[in-house]
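Name: LacI family transcriptional regulator
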Amino acid sequence: MPRQADIARIAGVSQATVSVVLGGNSAVRMAESTRRRVLEVAEQLGYVPHPVATRLASARSNLLGLYTFRATFPTDVADSYYPILVGVEEEAAALGQDLILFTGTSGPGASHEAAIRRTRMADGCLFFGRHVPEEPVARLVDSGFPLVYIGRRAELDGRIPYVGADYVSASAEVLTRLKGLGHREIRYVRESDEAPSSTDRQRGVLEAAPETTVVRIDGPELDPGTVRAWVRDGVTAVVVEGTDTGAAYTAVRKAIDAARLSTPDDLSLAVLGGPPEVSGFAVPMREMGRRAVRLLVDLVTERQTTPQQLLWCPPVAGSTVGAPRTR
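Structure predicted for LacI family transcriptional regulator:
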């Protein structure tokens, strides 16, 4: 790689002059022809400042980290997290920021502890994933390192900056719609795993329809006989938690099909953040990625901002919800 010394030798100037020109220091007086000659040589050689050296000189490098607590980054366009990456990349490019993907947790013998420490090579870091290892993240927060979590976080006594979705209001709206159509016997199916997004969805469900029965399942399997029994008992609607795994929705959809029931004729089906053809609401993943980048840049530059933000989830009419069938 070309160095400033190489530029100085070819341009016929001192290395200090090259440093002043490439550092953009206009306070130092010099001939415009000298400044132009240095820039032309740097361009010809393809000189790129070393990010660590730039960081030491200016305290910022315009590098933002992106860290996930999953084993790999989502690369499939069907992955629920993929739109987040699209939003992150779009906004980073718009703001003139480069991205570093931290992948240390996928290697042999890797740990979150060591990988999270490495995020300090960036100006700040975006985090996303269903769970948070609290100790290493707490150290970053306590040290004042700028970070933003994509998704609401309640850990560390609410000190983690985040951009999330307003699942409480959106879930309540779905249940309010079902009740308005005449549904009274409703089952809410969710995964057994605990996370703030799960807590928020269930809270919204029970705020709008306190009589709703909550059913927890493990994995993408639900006995079709269970669904048939619900219908016999007068259940007219099933609401399902939407997650990055989609396990609850997969289980319910398979069980309904295996029980030879149709939606919405036999049973209305709503998903709290799921496929676009299913009634419920959409999670603004792409916008969450964009907003998270903007919030992180605000924190890095110490601009006045709101460190915890919730975005509206647009409702999805879908084709799987209707009025209860007269029995």
